[in-house]
Specification:
alpha/beta; 5-stranded parallel sheet; 14 strands; 12% strand
């Protein structure tokens, strides 16, 4: 059949810029129509493949991940509607446009029930097809964004609000983040727990050319070692017990944006090798699948331990470490920029009071002095937790911060040094929760691992 020429529409080309990460499969037994559709879509999309039958399409789908299928209903052998039903049963969640030259109302209803996104009658205009493709890919994009948003809310990811502080240390950090944000290189953020590594990763993302893409945070320490590969790369139906349908991984949901791998040192060695392959090949392979899915994702990793020491101990791959350490930025502990504590206190009161539905509290210069003399083992996170508790109680809870043994006074001016105050504070919190280290670490704003190290140093069981 003859096909109309593709119109020169700059506005449509601009709209199609968002398609560059998308992959499309055209399934039509008529070679002229298939070639026309491929040539129309290829300049706009990342990948466009063609198949002349349902069986050829299934073979391609086993090895590729498609965001959109354009299916002719009248195919030799298995027709397009039957193919769509089979794909939906196997867990394919992408968009599908059905096209046909022969259709009635019953056929249209059957197509929609099978899971089609749109239904187009031949012959059609180019603009009609492109509008349908644009709407389908937009729905796919929104579905990815909704998934990331629900996951982010469930993990209580802190909102982006900038890095607070005017000290020389923080100004240097802000300049480094601003400079690195403009490039696409992999970044390794290092620093103690609670120093704001996720906030720094958000700053990198929001100031980068990928700012309009998704920001997907992953805490490698909290994910099950048995499921982390599936979470990152996705899995095929039947890949393992309980995999009743296929599922996309977080790499796919981060397409065009940033994937933040927090606590990267906790990643199992087997996954380290897989991550290295992704960084080198820019493709992922879902668990139990033959698919090779291209990904355009920037990786930002973070760690609260020395990866160089982990490499020396054989717990982290040297090649992955060097691949991640293209740019390394160290976040300073709070004790190294205590002059920023007044700004941080003001910031946390301003942001947390409306969230909690309480009145802001007044903090006196004397109380700020007390805060600036504390060692802050939990860094900025511990300070934030203190302000949140104080807002709930109605005044700054300095005595809770300087909890100590009965013989010690809780305020500055005693002979007690800061390290002793830190020990007394941690022991008091542990005692208040009957030795539950998980709860104590959460209250202190530090990781359980950090708490256990402190206890080991003090020979506390």
């Amino acid at each position: 059949m003859s096909t109309p020429a593709v119109p020169d529409r700059p506005d449509r080309d601009r709209a199609a810029e968002g398609w560059r990460h998308s992959s499309i499969l055209v399934v039509d037994d008529e070679q002229g129509m298939r070639n026309f559709l491929e040539k129309t879509l290829a300049p706009r999309c990342g990948e466009v493949h063609g198949a002349d039958s349902a069986e050829a399409a299934e073979a391609l789908i086993r090895t590729h991940r498609y965001d959109l299928l354009i299916l002719d209903i009248a195919l030799p052998g298995k027709n397009g509607i039957a193919l769509l039903r089979d794909l939906r049963e196997q867990g394919y969640s992408g968009e599908v446009i059905l096209i046909t030259a022969f259709a009635d109302l019953d056929t249209a209803i059957e197509a929609l029930r099978a899971g089609a996104s749109d239904f187009i009658l031949k012959p059609f205009r180019v603009t009609q097809l492109l509008n349908s493709v644009q709407q389908s890919l937009e729905r796919a994009r929104l579905a990815r964004e909704n998934y990331v948003l629900r996951r982010t809310i469930s993990q209580r990811t802190p909102p982006f609000s900038g890095l607070v502080g005017h000290s020389p240390v923080m100004q240097q950090l802000q300049r480094a983040l601003q400079r690195v944000a403009q490039v696409t290189s992999t970044v390794l953020l290092s620093g103690e727990s609670g120093t704001g590594k996720e906030l720094a990763a958000l700053a990198l993302h929001r100031n980068s050319p990928r700012a309009n893409g998704p920001f997907v945070p992953v805490n490698c320490a909290t994910m099950s070692p048995e499921l982390i590969e599936s979470e990152l790369f996705g899995h095929a139906k039947g890949a393992f017990t309980g995999a009743t349908k296929s599922r996309d991984g977080l790499f796919y949901y981060a397409q065009g944006g940033t994937l933040f791998l927090d606590e990267i040192g906790e990643l199992p060695l087997s996954l380290q090798a897989a991550l290295l392959r992704v960084l080198d090949d820019r493709r992922i392979r879902p668990v139990g699948s033959e698919q090779q899915v291209p990904v355009d994702v920037r990786i930002i990793a973070a760690t609260n331990r020395s990866l160089a020491a982990e490499v020396a101990a054989g717990r982290f791959r040297a090649d992955l470490y060097y691949r991640l350490q293209v740019v390394e930025i160290a976040l300073p502990p709070l004790r190294e920029h205590k002059e920023d504590i007044p700004d941080l206190v003001e910031h946390f009161i301003a942001t947390l009071a409306p969230q909690l539905g309480v009145e802001p509290i007044e903090v006196t210069p004397e109380e700020l002095e007390y805060l600036q003399q504390y060692h802050w083992p939990g860094n900025v996170r511990e300070l934030r937790n203190l302000i949140e508790r104080s807002l709930i109680l109605g005044s700054l809870n300095v005595s809770a911060l300087y909890q100590s043994l009965p013989a010690a006074r809780p305020y500055p001016g005693t002979a007690t040094d800061l390290h002793t105050l830190e020990k007394q504070h941690i022991l008091a919190v542990l005692e208040s929760v009957q030795g539950d280290k998980t709860r104590a670490a959460k209250m202190l704003g530090i990781s359980r691992r950090t708490l256990e190290r402190r206890c080991a140093e003090w020979s506390v069981s």
